[in-house]
Design goal:
Elements: H1 2-14, H2 20-54, E1 61-64, E2 69-76, E3 79-85, E4 88-93, E5 97-101, H3 105-108
Antiparallel strand pairs: 1-2, 1-5, 2-3, 3-4
Family: Belongs to the YajC family.
Organism: Acinetobacter towneri
Membrane topology: Single-pass membrane protein
């Protein structure tokens, strides 16, 4: 029986553990991958969306997340009053705007 134990112990000593530097390097590579593929693009999109929201003004033709399109008639803090068609106005959050249309787009639809 001691024969099996001694060979198992010798095999365990022969297998070396990875060095601390290799482990830290692998963790650094994973962090870099997540940064460049997930965190950085997401923060860039969020920054662009904040700039879009800040640039909204009266008369801007916009598209909302739900697919509605309209022209901003009044801005009230975090909300905007949007005219969807003549006489139909709704109040929506400015953050729900996903894009600004070129001037005159609504007239051509």
């Amino acid at each position: 029986m001691s024969l099996f134990i001694s060979t198992a112990h010798a095999a365990g000593e022969a297998a070396q553990q990875p060095s601390l530097v290799a482990n830290l390097l692998m963790i650094a590579v994973f962090i870099a991958i997540f940064y460049f593929l997930i965190w950085r693009p997401q923060s860039k999109r969020a920054k662009e969306h904040r700039a879009l929201i800040e640039s909204l003004g009266v008369g801007s033709e916009v598209v909302f997340a739900g697919g509605l399109m309209g022209k901003i008639t009044k801005i009230e803090g975090d909300f905007a009053v949007v005219e969807l068609s003549r006489g139909v106005e709704v109040k929506v959050q400015r953050a729900s705007v996903i894009s600004v249309l070129p001037e005159g787009t609504l007239n051509n639809l």
